[in-house]
Specification:
The structure holds 2 protein chains of 2 kinds. Chain A has a domain at 4-116: 3-Layer(aba) Sandwich (Rossmann fold). Chain A is α/β, with parallel strands linked by helices. The longest helix of chain A is centred in the C-terminal third of the chain and has 19 residues, at 118-136. Chain A has 7 helices and 5 strands; from the N terminus they run E-H-E-H-E-H-H-E-H-E-H-H. Chain A has helices spanning 13-23, 38-50, 69-78, 80-83, 96-106, 118-136, 149-159, and strands at residues 4-9, 32-35, 54-60, 86-91, 110-113. Chain A is 49% helix and 17% strand. By secondary structure, chain B is of the alpha+beta class. Chain B folds into 3 domains: 17-130, Jelly Rolls; 211-336, no CATH class; 345-493, Heat Shock Protein 90 (2-Layer Sandwich). Helix content of chain B is 54%, strand content 17%. Chain B has helices at residues 17-20, 23-36, 38-43, 95-100, 121-130, 132-233, 239-250, 257-270, 276-284, 287-293, 303-339, 352-362, 386-404, 436-439, 461-471; strands at residues 44-47, 52-54, 63-68, 71-76, 81-87, 92-93, 107-110, 114-119, 348-350, 370-376, 382-384, 408-416, 422-429, 475-480, 486-493. Chain B starts with 16 loop residues before the first helix and ends with a strand. The chains are: A alpha/beta, B alpha+beta. Chain B: Keywords: Coiled coil. Chain B: InterPro entries: cNMP-bd_dom, cNMP-bd_dom_sf, HATPase_C_sf, HATPase_dom, His_kinase_dom, RmlC-like_jellyroll, Sig_transdc_His_kin-like_C. Chain B: Pfam families: cNMP_binding (PF00027), HATPase_c (PF02518).
Chain lengths: 162, 496
């Protein structure tokens, strides 16, 4: 079975540290990778693709040197490999225009503003990953312990596994 | 109007006094007389259109009586020529100067072809003795002409009074309008200031949110880690080793994320029973630290100690994050305080380079993908309003960022001229530049290239910029930067 990755893109190393740390409890099921820029993230996405793994979720800052976060998300939405990836913007400041573009063109799933609370961020990430596995996985049972149980059970019932 | 003839007025009539003053009848009578009088025939003089009959300021020896056509009258004022109107058949030209000998009062020019009788003093007297009848009419006409002039003058007085009153009214209206305009302008300026403030606040929010996030989360984790650390360290034979890893975390340098991924893959084989999150930490460590971990890598029984050292490292790392974040916030707040310092009513002697540096700090969020080339030479202090000049730097830097779409090169330099009496500041970008056509109006209040309703700002940023610089007796100009882009040059006098 291929791994489902979580990618965090953030140019400030101290912030990247704490984002990854906030999500660490998911790592048993979803390996987490960090990237310091959009370019870095592209390379990472390619590596994950070449290894035959998938990307379940991206948590992305907006204002970074080089390409902006929203540009990266729009690009991912256009790419078949990352189209189903759940996309979350984690930012202190994205202008209205950028946000609109993110929603319309990148199918942005969530917008989390800085500073965030660990519980909130974790809940959002868990919910989004739950949607991702429901959409893409046949066997949902392994995720019951780590993702949103209620949603998963409902999905399992409707898929007719139980 | 010559053709409309009044009934029974073809002949000289002594009964009707009105007829004495009737120009048309006078002209008719003269015309009739001309056919019989050699004297009058000899006085006939025709002017072509545009010819000057009488020229203002010249002495006059001739009295013209217009018989056909029209003449124009012009009076030269100090810096204006007044058009006094036209004279037609039966009117006199040069009456006053002819009678009084004063210089000609107004210039008379033929408006069309004009037929006149031109009297000099001799034949005027001759005319009087020869044609007493028509001379009476002439007298009457002269009298009525003078009376008309007098009436006109009175009318003009009234007109002047009326105009003065209207002018006063209009002046008041204008005063009101100017006041209103001033209010609107001030409203725009404060709106623009608010817009700049909005941009700055939004930027600062981002600038502060990042370290604040790191700070908050790091504190959380550190407090967790520390209590665990204290608890578990009792099991560890030597606390120096824990201390060593803690210090290493505290002084770590951030690794390249791609490189780190490579290390993680190879380390996963060595530390096979470690959680992935711990391996990430190990991947950050230098070879010395990894070497120190190796004794614990293989055995599962040593895993607790291994985790302890990694946690110690991570604690140092979080503490380092807290330190960096705190000093970042402190630095930002300091810059902001200094940047937004309200300057008093009087200017102060200042090193303007500090303001430029602070502005760059405050605008850090806009400059993430902009390479700033700073070349600030030593310059003398300038007597200025610091806060206002900071707004100038802000406007110009934001404009440059807008022009470059937030990625490119920003060049800021300053220096002193060779005479040592002027300080110059240059702010340039390598964006698309400004077309010559637009350069001319770029400092006009309503000029903007930003589309309406889009970004912040109303397009009076550069007008304000210019206003502030002029307040400092300085100038601002825009040129093309060598190698493309726009360059703003500001020059300030150095006060003694």
């Amino acid at each position: 079975m291929s791994d489902i990755y979580i990618i965090c893109v953030e140019d400030e190393p101290q912030v990247l540290d704490v984002v990854i740390r906030d999500l660490e409890q998911l790592e048993e099921f979803f390996p987490i990778e960090g990237a310091a820029s959009a370019n870095d993230a592209r390379q990472l996405i390619n590596e994950i693709k070449e290894d035959g793994n998938r990307i379940g979720l991206i948590l992305c800052d907006h204002i970074m040197p080089g390409d902006k976060g929203v540009d990266l998300l729009v690009e991912m939405q256009k790419d078949e490999f990352t189209q189903s990836t759940r996309k979350i913007l984690l930012t202190g400041q994205a202008g209205l225009d950028d946000t609109i573009q993110a929603v319309n063109k990148a199918r942005l799933n969530q917008y989390v503003s800085k500073p965030w609370k660990k519980e909130e961020l974790l809940k959002i990430v868990i919910d989004e990953l739950t949607d991702f596995v429901i959409e893409t996985e046949d066997d949902l049972l392994p995720y019951l312990s780590v993702l949103n149980q209620e949603k998963l059970q409902e999905a399992i019932r409707s898929k007719g596994y139980i | 109007m010559n053709s409309s003839k009044k009934q029974g007025s073809l002949h000289l009539t002594e009964e009707s006094t009105r007829s004495l003053y009737d120009k048309e009848i006078f002209v008719q009578n003269i015309n009739q007389l001309i056919t019989e009088s050699e004297l009058l025939k000899s006085l006939l003089k025709t002017f072509e259109e545009g010819e000057v009959l009488l020229e203002e300021g010249m002495p006059n020896k001739t009295l013209y009586v217009v018989l056909e056509g029209e003449v124009s009258q012009h009076k030269e004022g100090e810096d204006i020529t007044a058009d006094i109107g036209l004279l037609g058949p039966g009117e006199f030209c040069g009456l006053l100067s002819f009678q009084t000998g004063e210089p000609i009062f107004i210039t008379i020019k033929a408006q069309s072809q004009v037929k006149t009788l031109a009297f000099d003093h001799n034949n005027f007297d001759l005319f009087y003795t020869k044609y007493p009848e028509i001379s009476r009419t002439l007298n009457g006409l002269i009298f009525s002409n003078l009376a008309e002039r007098y009436r006109n003058m009175l009318g003009l007085h009234l007109e002047v009074a009326k105009l003065t009153r209207e002018l006063e009214k209009e002046k008041n209206q204008l005063r009101k309008t100017i006041k209103e305009l001033e209010r609107t302008r001030n409203a725009y300026i404060s709106q623009e200031k608010m817009a700049t403030l909005g941009e700055l606040t939004a930027g600062l929010a981002h600038e502060i949110n990042n370290p604040a996030s790191a700070l908050l989360r790091s504190v959380d984790y550190l407090s967790q880690n520390l209590s665990q650390l204290v608890e578990s360290s009792a099991k560890f034979p030597s606390t120096t080793e824990i201390r060593y890893f803690f210090d290493a975390g505290l002084s770590r340098e951030y690794a390249d994320s791609i490189e780190q991924r490579g290390r993680m893959k190879s380390l996963a084989g060595v530390f096979s029973h470690l959680q992935r999150s711990k391996i990430r930490m190990v991947a950050e460590m230098n070879d010395d630290l990894i070497e120190r971990l190796m004794p614990y890598s293989g055995k599962k029984s040593q895993q607790e100690l291994l985790n302890l050292l990694i946690d110690a490292y991570q604690s140092g790392l979080f503490l380092n994050g807290i330190r960096l974040s705190t000093s970042r916030i402190e630095f930002l707040v300091k810059s902001l305080k200094s940047y937004s310092r309200q300057s008093g009513k009087s200017p102060e002697m200042t090193d303007i380079r500090n303001g430029i540096r602070e502005t760059l700090q405050i605008l850090g969020h806009r400059l993430k993908s902009v390479k700033v080339h700073l070349n600030l030479e030593e310059i003398p202090l300038i007597n200025c309003f610091v806060g206002e000049l900071n707004q100038v730097w802000t406007n110009l830097i934001i404009n440059a960022c807008d022009a470059m779409n937030d990625s490119g090169n920003l060049y800021i330099s300053c220096g002193v001229n060779s005479a040592n009496d002027l300080v110059w500041v240059k702010i340039a970008d390598d964006g698309p530049g400004v077309p010559d056509k637009i350069k001319k109006k770029i400092f006009q209040p309503s000029f903007t290239t930003k589309t309406a309703g889009g970004d912040f700002g109303l397009g009076i940023g550069l007008a304000i910029t210019q206003g502030v610089i002029e307040k400092h007796q300085g100038t601002i100009s825009i040129t093309d930067r060598d190698g493309g882009g726009a360059e703003f040059l500001m020059i300030f006098p150095i006060d003694e």
